[in-house]
Automatic annotation (TrEMBL):
The lineage of its organism: Eukaryota, Fungi, Dikarya, Ascomycota, Pezizomycotina. Residues 15-85 form the BTB domain. Transmembrane segments: none annotated. This is BTB domain-containing protein. Residues 191-210 are annotated as: Disordered. It comes from Zasmidium cellare. InterPro entries: BTB/POZ_dom, SKP1/BTB/POZ_sf.
Amino acid sequence: MSAERPAKRRRFTSDIVTLKVGESKSETFTIHADTLKQHSPFFKAALDKKWREGQSLQVDFPEDEPDTIEAYLGWLHDGKVEAPESPGTDDLTFPFLAKLYVLGEKIQDNAFCNSVIDKITEVLDSPEWEDSSPGFSSSNIIYDGTPDDSPARTLFAFYFLHYGNFKKDESMDRLHPAFLRDILVLHSSRKDPTPNAPLSPKRQEWHKKT
C-alpha cells in the first residue's frame, strides 16, 4: 500500500487547471491537472509546460457549451454519463449526448466516448423511447464532429437503418451526406437484426479501443 500513497498524493496535490468555456469564456471550471492528463492525451499534451496552456494552467473551449464540459467533469468524478431526459417531439437527450461524444473525440478520451455510447444504447433501449427516435440534428452533430471511421457514426447509421422512425416534419435533405452514404452502405450488406432486439448487448461493437 505504501507504493500507492505517493501516486494518490500527487493526484490530489497537482496543479489546478482552469477550463474557460464558451465564446465569451465567461464560464469557468477548475480541476486537478493530473486527473485530466490521466484520462486524456489531449490534456496531457496541452498541459505540458512547454506550451502556453501548460504554463498558464488554462485551457479554452470557445466552441463548447458549459453543460457539456460539466458533464465530462462529472464523469471524471463518478464514471456516470448524465443527460436530460426528453423523449418525444422536443428531443434534448440525443443532441446533448452527441455533443458529449464529439467532446470525447476532441480531447481523445476513448473511455469517455465508450461511456457515452453505453448511455446512448441504454436510452434507446428504454421504454420511454419505444415510439420515438432521435432527430436528424443528433446525427448531424456526430457527423460534423467526428472522423470518417468514428464508431458513433456506425451506431447512428445502424440505428436509423434498422430501428429509426423518421419524423414527418424532418426533410431528408437535412441528412448529412456522409450519414446517408453510411446508411446505404449498411443497407447493401444488410443482415436484419432480431426484431426489437436491444442495442445494449451490442454496445461494444461501437466502442473505441482503450
